[in-house]
Specification:
By secondary structure, this protein is mostly helical. The protein has a domain at 1-74. It has 8 helices and no strands. Helix 7 (137-145) packs antiparallel against helix 8. It is globular.
Amino acid sequence: MKGDFTDNLGRIYGIYVGGFAVFVIAMAILEQIGLPHKFILWAYMAMTIGVYAFIGILSRTSQVSEYYVAGRKVPAIYNGMATGADWMSGASFVGMAGSLYVLGYDGLAFVLGWTGGYVLVAVLLAPYLRKFGAYTVPDFLGTRYGGNFPRLLGIIVLFCCSFTYV
């Protein structure tokens, strides 16, 4: 792949998606053959770790910002797709469907909150994370308000939100 990283981003993304699809199909075939679920679990874990290691080695990253945020060189459209994929995960969709099934019409409030939360994160928080050079919300709070107390408070809030999410 010749050229700059951003010139080849579409091709890299396509190769990654294609490789992931092939891997999922291979795992489905192995399951149909009758391999134990434990083997498939370990294969998935090894593949995930291997892909991240391969990306790190291939891109020759030596700085944290290069590995976590690609040196902040990723165009907004790809960054938006990654954020959307993270926010609108399978667990979110399954959880929303379950909430709507259990709560009926009243469950639509969760869908509105979920969608509104996505917009708030995208518009109000994401630009400031980038501006302050932070990777996480606790890093942003520590940088913006100074000291470790805001950072610790952010960690506690995110920890609590993670448990209510799951």
